[in-house]
Amino acid sequence: MIRTYQLNTRDIEPAMDLHQKLLGVSSKFKKLSSKKDEDVDEKVS
Fold first, then answer.
1. Structural domain contains residue 33
2. Which residue from 13, 25, 26, 29 has the fewest beta carbons nearer than 10 Å?
3. Per-residue pLDDT tens for 11-41?
4. 8: CB partners within 8 A, 6+ apart
5. 39 occurs within a structural domain
6. Is this model's pTM higher than 0.70 or not?
7. DSSP secondary structure string, 24-40?
8. Cβ contacts of residue 33 below 8 Å, gap of 6+?
9. What burial class does residue 35 get, using C-beta atoms within 10 Å of its C-beta: 0-12 exposed, 13-18 middle, 19+ buried?
10. What single DSSP character describes residue 9?
11. Residues of the domain holding 28
């Protein structure tokens, strides 16, 4: 059943951007997301 679902939905684009939605809803998610971005910047430097 799960495999059938995966095959049927593989070419479908999501109707919304979950990351942007969570940034607008959760301050904790926003803090974690900005911390992740800072960590990535430090690794690149």
1. yes
2. 13
3. 988 888 888 888 888 889 888 888 887 776 7
4. none
5. yes
6. no
7. HH-HHHHHHHHHHHHHH
8. 19, 23
9. exposed
10. H
11. 17-45
